[in-house]
Design brief:
Elements lengths: L2 E9 L4 H17 L3 E8 L5 E7 L2 H8 L2 H14 E10 L13
Antiparallel strand pairs: 1-3, 1-4, 2-3
Length: about 100
């Protein structure tokens, strides 16, 4: 089963450009990590941001969590970018995919 990281956050005022640069770098980096499955981004009307990243297994997720560049970005996020954030990491217990294009 895959491991899913859900990262919810709200940015401080005026940091969008600098945050966007770091977020783009982290997105490129995570996609190169062994065990990376996919990532999705969402932004709510009130400004909350949600990033969902899936990894093949817990070891791949831990490797990402402990990557030196990711750790540096986390420190910068706390000191410069985030008003708040919360992270949830869990193992997938069930998955089903439906695609209308697969139906005859």
């Amino acid at each position: 089963m895959t491991v899913i990281t859900v990262f919810r956050s709200r940015l401080r005022t005026g940091v969008d450009a600098a945050y966007g640069e770091v977020a783009s770098q982290m997105s490129r980096l995570v996609r190169e990590m062994p065990g990376f499955v996919d990532e999705s981004f969402f932004r709510g009307e009130e400004g909350e941001r949600v990033t969902i990243v899936r990894f093949r297994d817990a070891a791949a997720q831990r490797a990402w969590a402990q990557h030196p560049d990711h750790l540096a970005a986390q420190r910068r996020g706390r000191s410069e970018f985030y008003e708040y954030y919360d992270i949830t990491v869990s193992e997938e217990t069930y998955a089903k995919v439906f695609r209308a294009s697969d139906v005859d």
